[in-house]
Amino acid sequence: MNVVLYAGSIIIMVWGVAHIVPTKSVVKGFGPISEENRQIITMEWVAEGAALCFIGLLTLLVTSFAGPQDPLATTIYRVSAGMLITMAVLTALTGARTSIIPIKVCPIVKAVAAVLLLVGSIL
Q1: What is the distance between the alpha carbons of residues 97 and 119, in angstroms, rounded to a whole number?
Q2: CA–CA separation, 113 and 30 (whole Å)
Q3: How far apart, in whole angstroms, are the C-alpha atoms of residue 27 and residue 38?
Q4: Interhelix angle 35-65/71-93, nearest 10 degrees
Q5: CA quadruple 102, 104, 107, 113: dihedral positive or negative?
Q6: Residue 103: per-residue pLDDT
Q7: Cα–Cα distance between 48 and 110 in angstroms, integer?
Q8: Residue 32 sits in a domain of what CATH number?
Q9: Which helix (H) or strand (E) holds 56?
Q10: Domain that holds residue 72
Q11: What DSSP element (H or E) covers 9?
Q12: Residues with Cβ within 8 Å of residue 60, at least 6 apart in sequence
C-alpha cells in the first residue's frame, strides 16, 4: 500500500519539477510577445509545477509521518487525487490539444498519479 502512495507522490513531484525546469524555453517558444504576457505565462507555468510538487510532497510526507491508515491521510490522498484529476481534465481540454508532446502526456501523468493515490487510500 505505501509503495503505491509513494509512487504516486514521487511521480507527480518529478512531473512538477519537469514542468518548472523548461519554463524559460517554453516562454521563448511563444515568440515575440509583450513583457507582461511573458510574465503571466512564466507565472502560470511555474505555479502549475509548484502545485504539482506541493501535492506530491504533501502526500509523501503524510504517508511517511502519519501512515495511510490515518483518517486525515486518507482525506488528503483523495482530495489530492481530485485536484490532480481536475488539473488533468483542464490540461486535456486546453494544452493537450496542441502539438506539444509533453503537454499531450501531462493529463495521463496526472491521472496515473491520481489513481495511485486513490488506490493507496483504499487498500
Answers
A1: 29
A2: 29
A3: 6
A4: 150
A5: negative
A6: 86
A7: 12
A8: 1.20.1270
A9: helix 35-65
A10: 2-122
A11: helix 2-20
A12: 6, 9, 10, 13
Question: How far apart (Å, rounded) are the C-alpha atoms in residues 10 and 25?
Answer: 24
Instruction: Please tell me the distance from the alpha carbon of residue 92 to that of residue 115, in angstroms, as a whole number.
Output: 16
- The gap from C-alpha 18 to its chain's centroid, in whole angstroms, comes to 10
Using one digit for the tens of pLDDT, what is the confidence trace for 68-108?
Answer: 899 999 999 999 999 999 999 999 999 878 888 888 899 99
13-32 pLDDT, tens digit per residue, is 999 999 999 999 989 988 99
| pLDDT value at 56 more than 90 | yes
Number of structural domains (the chain) is 1
Tell me if 123 sits within 8 A of 1, measured CB to CB: yes
Predicted TM-score (pTM) of the model is 0.92
**Residue 34, all three cell numbers:** 509583450
Instruction: Take residue 93 and report the three cell numbers written for it.
Output: 481540454
